[in-house]
Amino acid sequence: MDDRGPAPASSRAPAARLLAALEATLGWLGAAILATLFLVVMAAVVRRYVFGGGFVWSDELAIWLHVALIAVGAPLAMTGVLSMRLDVLVRLLPPAWRRVADVLAGGIAVQGALLLAFGGTGVAMLVGGTSTVLGLPESLRFAAFALGGGLMVLVLTLRTALDRGWGGALASLTLGLAFYELAQLPSGLILTTPSLGAALLAATGLLLGVPLPLALLAGASIAGAFGGLMPEPAIVQNTVAGVSKFLLLAIPFFLLAGELLTSGGLAERLVRFAASLVGHWRAGLAQTSLVSSVLFSGASGSSVANAAFGAKVMAPTLVARGYPPAHAAGIVAGVSMLDNIIPPSIAFLLLATATNLSVGSLLVGGFVAGGVLAIALAIGIHLTVRHVVDAAPKASGRERAASFVGALPAIGLGIVVVAGIRFGVVTVTEASALAVAYALVTCLLLRSLNGRGVLAALRSTATETAAIGLLIGASAPFAFLLALDGVSDRMAGLVTALGGGPYAVMLLANCVLLVAGLFLDIGAAILLLAPLLLPVAVAAGLDPIQFGVILVVNLMIHGLTPPLGILVYVVSGITRVPPGAVFRAVLPLLGVLLAALAVLSLGAAAWPSLASSSLALALKALF
């Protein structure tokens, strides 16, 4: 930060106009790419299931469009609410030290963006050949990330200039260039575990408030200076390869389906149905929030989307019924964690990507875990809501039937998606595209959504997709460094020292995840830790599906814990309740969730594969 404070308004005006124009252009371009991506996948789905064939080019074109979407949207994601910044500790510093921390954070962020810009350019110039089906130069995918990295540098500089003055912006830019050059030089210090140097720089950047994906990229780039075997071109290639997977296309489509449901009013129909079921209970409105979250989970798969919806719709209603604002926000944040547990779940898609586990089997395990967690939350709400009397009159059978019919369009979406994936009718990506088509057609037929709402949903989803996609890409080279250094083998040795049995492995894994989740984003923790912990769990005799489900449950709980607590920050930002107050209010729900985690962990260690196989048989009998 410039010691003289932000620049005068006259000098900031051109930067503000340029930034606004750039953000608007990137936003609309991202929306256009996402719409094109959806049309390509839907055309392939229609061709396959209606005409009995497919397009040879559709899968590869979809992957390339996904890469372009991430590259275009990343500059917006890294400066907005989705940037995954841990700035709680920096806020505690005195003003002078905070200015120093801001400049250092800006420098590390610029270093990570420069890695993509220069490294992507270098790879694009070196890579030859054309794609197998499209016939396009392979260099285009890397050129897209190079362009995205360059735009990130520009957007970061402009945003810093507006927030802290041109002096701070130029200082961060200069420092970032210096960090980038130093990372290319040997340090003379060779570490037996070069990934340790990468982890230290990434952790430093994270504590200073650097966006998590850029901190990971900056950390990966420094490993070479300490004897690491991953030069800059390899880092960029791993980053692009990490997002060039067809399964990952399901993420933007599930996000878009959730946005359309919320914008089109279908989510509110779920709330009315939930209220007819449990509104007459003690703490009926809070229990309605919980049941609404369970129902919304079957259609969205995004806890962030559910938290945003609950903060806009449920939290004000809770406050109006007498709940303290912090308590209302804590309830909304607590119940929204279910969306990444109850299928379809974006967290399970990330886990399947990182470990090659079966998505369908993970969804079955998610039903078991989601049921246990929902019961725990219901008990927690019942025990903690003592001074608010909000029970509504018990709904009649006719009222429940009417609300159920009104909610059927949204409920039907979840049934179509989960049943289609579980029984192999459609792939995960196809199911997610069908979910978007279903939500779009339903909302348009009900006249609850217009063209402007669809465009807004596309823009919002494009930015969120880019944030998640860049995190996935940045985690890939970091995970590769950990694999090269044999971190998984060292964990296995530690487990052996503790006894090596399923209980020891489960205890160690939960401890590692509970600590790591305090400082890592949920997606990053899945991508980095799952490949390390899963082989150890399997060697100890644990069922890999059950272990994967518990891993996701453990990390989703951290959506409610400081200092990251993304669900708390989403709800806090919308309700305007201070994050600290929400963190305190959510503590009782955290207690019951941890108890539920203990129950699930003990069950998985004592009866491997029993729960998931039992539920699978029940689902087959039901359908």
What's the layout of helices and strands?
Blueprint: H1 9-51, H2 58-77, H3 88-91, H4 95-126, H5 139-164, H6 166-183, H7 194-208, H8 212-222, H9 232-243, H10 250-263, H11 266-278, H12 284-297, H13 303-320, H14 325-336, H15 346-355, H16 359-384, H17 397-422, H18 428-445, H19 451-484, H20 487-498, H21 502-516, H22 522-539, H23 544-557, H24 566-575, H25 579-585, H26 587-606, H27 610-622
Helix pairs in contact: 1-2, 1-5, 1-18, 1-19, 2-5, 2-19, 4-5, 4-6, 4-8, 4-9, 5-6, 7-8, 8-19, 9-19, 10-18, 10-19, 11-12, 11-17, 12-13, 12-14, 12-16, 13-14, 13-24, 14-24, 14-25, 15-22, 16-23, 16-26, 16-27, 17-18, 19-22, 20-22, 21-22, 21-23, 21-26, 22-23, 23-26
Question: What descriptors fit this protein?
Answer:
mainly alpha; 623 residues; 27 helices; disordered N terminus; 2 domains; single chain
Descriptive report:
- It is a single chain.
- The chain has 27 helices and no strands.
- The protein has 623 residues and is mostly helical.
- The protein folds into 2 domains: 9-244, no CATH class; 248-449 and 485-622, no CATH class.
- Helix 4 packs across helix 9 (232-243), helix 7 (194-208) runs antiparallel to helix 8 and helix 12 packs antiparallel against helix 13.
- The longest helix has 43 residues, at 9-51.
- The chain is globular, with a radius of gyration of 24 Å.
- 57% of the residues are buried.
- Mean pLDDT is 81; it is low at 1-5.
